[in-house]
Amino acid sequence: MELRCEGCAGCCVDWRPLDPGAAGSDRTGPRPPLDDVYDLAPLTRDEIAGFVADGLADALAPRLFEPAERDDSVRIDGVDLAAVDDRPVFVVGLRKPPKPVAPIGTDEPRWLDACVFLDPTTLQCRIHGSDRYPDTCSSYPGHNLELGAETECERVETAGGGDRLLDDEPPDDLPAPAFGPQALGATVFAYPDPDDLDGVVARLRDGDTTADDRARFAGAAVGSRPGSLSVARDRMAEARERVREADSWVGAAVREWTDRAGEDGDRVALDATAPDSHDPDTSSPDARDRLVREVEDDAGAPGTPGWGE
């Protein structure tokens, strides 16, 4: 498998406002997600615990699912959820706030939902190559290739983005699929206390989750035991507290981007990025780059090496 990723960000950005053909392309299973986040990358239990330990738990986002045919289900907030033994099943991924990005095929920055770790200037991942870089991201699109499913690389190519998937042979060292039979307690979790989710499910469906909502799920994931429904209550409680206390550059950036953003797909106007600037070019790369430095880099975000490295 060989990819050309420079200037693309196809698997990190929500393309739907610019390319209606992208709608549904990230839905890879029979269970529709309850939320509308595009291309959420499931994390393993150990990866979630790593983000929590590093104080980056404010990067995490839970996902619940509607039941597929013949699935067990549980009803909360008037919503039927896929369940195991009356416990809603969920995964945890990375949040995708709106960011001023200009991925392949766009001639100027637009407000598009993008991974919290995507640098809008370089279109590189800020944690690529680090211990926190998720297996799902490092192995993409290996599982798609193995299953003969469309990849974001191919979708970008079709949209005129140039050659992206240079070698379509799946790697030999693919990790286990996120939704395989071994997934319970490892990447797919069962929430242990469904009665505590009144109101939470509705907020998750509407994209209005609170820090406490996200802490509930992240803690339950960290406390889970692979291959079982059991949850270590002490470990869950400790993780929940650390998630609630998380206040990293990621959380600050999510709040700032959300406050500044226009509508999905809107051109980024200068008054939304640098209100005190007199630069007459309202979409100049310099203006956008200054904003990225202010919101992410100056707040402590790790840098990216550039494509020449």
UniProtKB/TrEMBL annotation:
Taxonomically, which superkingdom?
Archaea
- A Pfam entry, by short name: DUF7531
**Compositionally biased spans, kind Basic and acidic residues:** 260-269, 276-294
Q: InterPro entries from the entry?
A: DUF7531
Q: Where is this region: Disordered?
A: 260-309
Identification of the protein by name: Fe-S-cluster containining protein
